[in-house]
Amino acid sequence: MASFIQLLVSGLATGAIYALIAVGFTLLWQTSQTINFAQGEFVMLPAFFVLAAMNAGAPFWLAAAIGIVLSIAILGILFKVIVVDPMLKYGVLPLVISTIALSLLLKESAKEFYSSQAQPFPALVPATDIHVLGAVVSTQSLAVLAVAIFTVAALNLLLNRTRLGRQMQATAQNATLARVLGIRVERMVLYTFLINAVLVAIASILISPIYLAKFTNGETLGMAAFIAAIIGGFNQVRGAILGGVILGVLDNLSAAYISSQYRGAFPLIILIVVILLRPQGLLGRIEERTI
Amino acid sequence: MNRLAVLAAAAAAVFAVTAPFLLKPFGIYLISMWAVLTIAAIGLNLTLGYAGQVSLAQGAFVGIGAYTVALLTQAGFPFSFAFVAAGILCFAVGWVLGYPALRVQHHYLAFVTLAFTTLIFLVLRNEEWLTGGIYGINGIARPAFFGWSTAKALDFYYFSLGMLAVLALATWWMLRSPWGRAFVALRENPIRALSLGLDTRRYTLMAFAIGSSLGGLSGALYAPLVQFIEPASFALGLSFNLLLMVIVGGSGYFFGPFIGALIAVLLPEWMRITQGYYLIVYAALVMVMMAFCPAGILGLAERALKAFAPRVKEAAP
């Protein structure tokens, strides 16, 4: 039981990070039909921005802020203007190819211009353990959970309680109608790219102390984000959150109790089952699609 | 324009036959790799370009084919038997994988096939008793036919080129048959295809199965070409690469995969002069290419030809 609680808490922490990544992923899909195959690399990269800032002498909090700002500039604005905008008119597939190439570009750039070795990354809180019901829970997991929950709550407030958020939702649901109602659709789409950039930067700062900052980190994280988004529902923010949490917990529990060798397989099997039985995802709406 | 295509194809064929005499051993290895991967790309072009089903599983089928041949030939079966077995096995697995394609489309299908590729990779890596795990399978022999051994690089190249020619002709023939027409109908307008009495279910499964079996046959040649196979070679990277070949060459064009595979095999090698940065340059080139001609190189060529051709024929819609 004690080990179960431990696994559950660390699973929730990983799941919360997956959820952040998956939420950004679904936001991009909803407002601009962008399937970002480089999302994993987007999470890998900000950690290197932070490390570079710290090498230049900045304290951790300042470096983290610089990392988030750089992430907004590069992974938000530049990504939209240079990669996505010119390709949107061609439909989904060329953009998929382009983001696949982008993921390779980012991965190789991190390797060439920073380091191919895993880099230690400062944790948010000093690593101590707390004893709850006989289980040992690390403060790091709790801190990750707290930051992730805070971020998701803030995002929800923004999307549901503010005028801006409602305009963004209207853009996601029906861009033409939103435009008729006087919403600046292009600007709303840009905002979702900025939000995605902030989310991946936060996820990067949360996950890098655990996995170390390494140029290959994006591979597993990107995959986790896709799977979480699809399990939960591609067109729902809360679906992506649910999917992320399910994935994180399941990943930890199945590795411990069923087979660690096939750890990577369980999420995939769930993915296939969900797609076959409920393609819109657990919480998703049915989208119109050809046949 | 059709005559131009035939001329270009003939010139390319002559070049493919004479090229190895101008090349060093590594060059011959590269063009052999081109011939082998082109077969897989032709299969993916059939599934994606003609039938319109996005698949990220082609690399996994190359892997299944490669392991089938490696295991069967090492168990003492002749190569030709193993080759056919690889094709049939991938046809069957591809048929089964086609079932999700009946239910979901586009990006969902991309993710199902992506999951399939990763699952195959995990099985290849973890089932050590069968596949040798991460150590892979070593020393795969190159086949001999009626006293003609393909052990030398040059002989194996001609063998691969011959197989490519045979399989490409078979695909060409199939695409011009009612089946091929049905595949295109499936891509262009599935509802209309259905209303015209086409059994879209069967044709979707068929497109997947035939495309996959070409992937398997490509893998069956891949194994004796590199003579050492390991699970990592058949992970997602290969599937992405094959997709890239089809799109860059021009999906839905018969000769698209030939050109796409040539670029995907040779470009990274030429980029080596930029040393560590060659993958970065390669990725950037692909992104630029996608931004300016998403229909691929043949799409660009067609556009260029149309622009220069006299505009008589365009009157009819």
Main attributes of the structure:
heterodimer; A: 291 residues; mainly alpha; ABC transporter involved in vitamin B12 uptake, BtuC; two-stranded antiparallel sheet; globular; B: 14 helices
What can you tell me about this protein's structure?
The complex is a heterodimer of chains A (291) and B (317). Helix content of chain A is 74%, strand content 3%. Chain A is built from eleven helices and two strands, in the order H-H-H-H-E-E-H-H-H-H-H-H-H. Chain A has a two-stranded antiparallel ribbon. In chain A, a hairpin with a 2-residue loop joins strand 1 (129-132) and strand 2. The longest helix of chain A has 31 residues, at 2-32. In chain B, helix 4 (79-103) packs antiparallel against helix 10 (200-226) and helix 8 crosses helix 10 (200-226). Chain B is globular and about 55 Å long. The two termini of chain B are 18 Å apart. The model of chain B has no long low-confidence stretch (mean pLDDT 86). At the A-B interface, helix 3, helix 4, helix 9 and helix 11 of A face helix 5, helix 11 and helix 13 of B.
